[in-house]
Inverse folding.
C-alpha cells in the first residue's frame, strides 16, 4: 500500500488531508501505514513508506503470520461511547509498541495495545469490518459529523 501510494504520488496529499482533520480509520495494514514508525516482528526495520500521521510505533505481524490468525473478545474504551465489548478478528495483525503524546489507548489484548485514537485518527490492529459490529465505524461517522457541524 505504501509503495503503490508513493509510486502514484498520493502520499503527500493523503498526509496533508489527515493533518488538516480528515477523520480516518486505519485497520490492520491501514494502521501500519498511518504510523510514524513500523518494524516487523521477525525482519526488524523494513523501510516501509508510511503516512506518519499517527504517533505510534507498530510491530507488523506481532501475533504471527496468516496461520496464527485468531479471534478474541476485547474491551473497547471509546471516548464518545464508553467501554464496550467487541469481537476482534486478528489476521496477521500488528500491535502498538509505543505511543506519543495525545494518543489514547482504546483496547488491549493481554499486554499488547491493539487500538488507539489520536484526534481525528483511529487505528486498530484487528478488522472491525469482520466483527459483526458497526461500533468503530459509528465512531468514524461521529468524527465526520462533528467535523461537519464545526464547518
Amino acid at each position: 500500500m505504501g509503495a503503490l501510494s508513493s509510486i502514484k504520488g498520493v502520499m503527500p496529499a493523503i498526509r496533508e488531508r489527515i493533518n488538516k482533520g480528515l477523520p480516518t480509520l486505519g485497520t490492520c495494514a491501514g494502521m501500519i501505514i498511518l504510523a510514524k514508525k513500523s518494524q516487523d516482528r521477525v525482519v526488524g526495520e523494513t523501510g516501509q513508506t508510511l503516512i506518519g500521521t499517527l504517533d505510534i510505533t507498530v510491530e507488523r505481524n506481532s501475533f504471527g503470520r496468516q496461520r496464527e490468525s485468531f479471534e478474541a473478545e476485547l474491551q473497547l474504551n471509546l471516548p464518545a461511547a464508553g467501554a464496550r465489548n467487541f469481537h476482534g478478528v486478528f489476521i496477521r495483525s500488528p500491535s502498538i509498541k509505543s505511543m506519543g503524546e495525545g494518543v489514547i489507548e482504546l483496547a488491549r489484548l493481554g499486554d499488547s495495545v491493539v487500538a488507539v485514537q489520536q484526534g481525528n485518527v483511529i487505528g486498530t490492529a484487528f478488522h472491525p469490518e469482520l466483527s459483526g459490529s458497526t461500533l468503530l465505524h459509528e465512531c468514524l461517522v461521529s468524527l465526520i459529523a462533528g467535523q461537519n457541524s464545526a464547518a
In short: The radius of gyration is 15 Å. The CA atoms of residues 73 and 103 lie 22 Å apart.
